[in-house]
Amino acid sequence: MSEDTSARSLADLLQFAKDYASKEVDLYDVLKIDTTTNDKDVHRAWRRQNLKYHPDKTREKFDPVIYELVGRAKDILTEPAARKAYDDARDALSKRRAERDALNQSRRKLIDELEAAENAAKLKRDSDEAKRVELERERMRMQAEAEEHEFAERQAEWAERDQRRKDIDSLEEQEAALLRKLQEKKERRAAKKSAATSEAASAEASGSDAKLADAKVKAKKKSKKPSSYFFTRDPTLSYEEKVTGVLSKMREAQKLRDAAAV
């Protein structure tokens, strides 16, 4: 073999070695050997695989791609420069893969941390929102209770005011009725007194001393008859005091009647 042919063959082997390495084709696995196998054992392994995939043995199942790969695996792994180029390319690829894996792991870790932080923030937001909703619900409940209490107080105040108005109206009616009774009684006493006076005058005019004396006695007795409401004639009492006294006397009289009925 000339030097040019050898150079071309070596260049081809170097290119094949780099191509197989970049495609992650494991030539050691093709020959079923490990990376420390020497050239002699590489040849033995090649013979075994070559016989296994030889067209005379496989016949209609012959696979030319595998058969060619077995031969090139032997050529590359028995040529020191090509084997070194193949191993270096595989090491570089393995290193880049490890770097990518480490980078991916770092990225995954960063992504996991970001997701964890986002989840924690979301949980906090959800918790804060739940607290806000609960506080708002409590505020509305307290406000409703306050409004209900205020409404109840207003109703009680209105009811009390109406009751006072009714009591005042009833008292005024009682006062008016009492005053009418007092006036009627006063008028009856005046009429009786006038009748007694007329009777006494008539008796005096007729010269009947006995009748005159009797009429005077009757008039005096009638004029001195004690009144249950004598204080109503007291000029020192106010109108309200007179009414209060009369009402008190009326209540006492009603109590006596109730006790007697029992």
UniProtKB/TrEMBL annotation:
Entry keyword annotation includes Cell division: no
Keyword line: Chaperone, Cytoplasm, Nucleus
GO biological process: spliceosomal complex disassembly
GO CC annotation: cytoplasm; spliceosomal complex
Annotated Low complexity bias: 193-210
Domain named J: residues: 26-90
UniProt cross-references to Gene3D superfamilies, sorted A to Z: DnaJ domain
Residue numbers spanned by region Disordered: 141-167, 185-231
Domain of life the protein comes from: Eukaryota
Record has Acetylation as a keyword: no
InterPro entries listed in its UniProt record: DnaJ_domain, J_dom_sf, Pre-mRNA-splicing_ERAD
Cell compartment(s), UniProt: Cytoplasm; Nucleus
SUPFAM superfamilies listed in its UniProt record: Chaperone J-domain
PANTHER family: DNAJ HOMOLOG SUBFAMILY C MEMBER 17
Name of the featured protein: Pre-mRNA-splicing factor cwf23
